[in-house]
Amino acid sequence: MKLIPALVLFSSGLAFAAPASNRYESLRQEIRQAIARGNAYIQSQQKPEGNWDDPGLPAFTALALTAATRDAAVKDGSYPEYIEKGYQWLIAQQKEDGGIYNRGLSVYNTATSLTALVSARKEAYEPAIIKARKHLIINQWDIGEKGKTDNPNDGGIGYGSKPTHTDLSNTYFAIEALALSKKVIEDGKHGDQPDLDWEAAITFLSRCQNLKQTNDQPWASDDPKNKGGFIYNAFESKAGQEKLPDGSDSQRSYGSISYAGLLSLVYAKLSPEDPRVIGVKEWLGKNYTVDENPGMKDQGLYYYYQAMAKALSVANVSGLRLENGTDADWRKDLGEKLLSLQKADGSWVNANGRWMESNPLLVTAYTVLALEQIDSSIP
What we know:
Blueprint: H1 7-10, H2 22-44, H3 59-69, H4 81-92, H5 106-120, H6 126-138, H7 168-186, H8 198-207, E1 241-243, E2 249-251, H9 255-267, H10 275-286, H11 301-314, E3 320-321, E4 327-328, H12 330-341, H13 360-377
Antiparallel strand pairs: 1-2, 3-4
């Protein structure tokens, strides 16, 4: 069976890497053992029908499959039976509109499912990939005058299913899935295919960033505590607000969504010299930690970890520059932190249940994906 080119994964930082330097070799071996134990736990949680967890949310199955297929120990195209069964269940959930969902949240479920289908690297899945791409693209907002991005939501993507707004989290998942699946349509064998309005998407991303130079929204602030970081959407931060000395309100930047913002900017092909990329890297350096989700403490902690690993590897950041001028070895810091948190049964879980992180299946998939990203990006 012909496989989707391995270059599909190169853009995600999941290409075959050069041999690890001596300083990472021990860490790499520990990470691979933790991945194996994590994926064994995930396999043990599969339902008889082939899905994982709640069948109303195919994202659980998609994340489990992506974690399984990105394991360096798994051979391309020769997957164990449980993985093949999982993919057959996932594809069977695809609707006429191209979405892969069962109980709303069509964008989130479709984006994670599209990423899983691409991770399988199988030509047989290309028709489902093409349809899923179209579903995400048609959910990009343009609700004012066409092409004018005259509404703060324009250019972004929401949950789907009649959302009231767009947000950076869903936009990031969709951008990632569309960027990773781009190789499937580039050779033209599927004919002319639509694409995201990337200029509008960049406008939306800019409107979610605390950077007055590129954000045209009235709340945008260059307050030193928040400058360069991202918020949830073009008008609200999940980390809340704070008063500035002049009496105005500043939207607080926070860690998980700022890494999602960095990853989105890179996939939107902004250069490392772009002020938006420079700004978010500076904020992330000032707020660097693997002990909490900056601005949110333990809320969304494992979402933070997977976004961090993906963003820094895709942005080709070897050492994240800190406020004191030194470079953080994020691979070592994050890898060792995640290893220390693994449970005896191979799982991970967050004591704080916000955003479903009390669910060990979800959190274990997030963590395995983060560890796989570290493993594949080791120089």
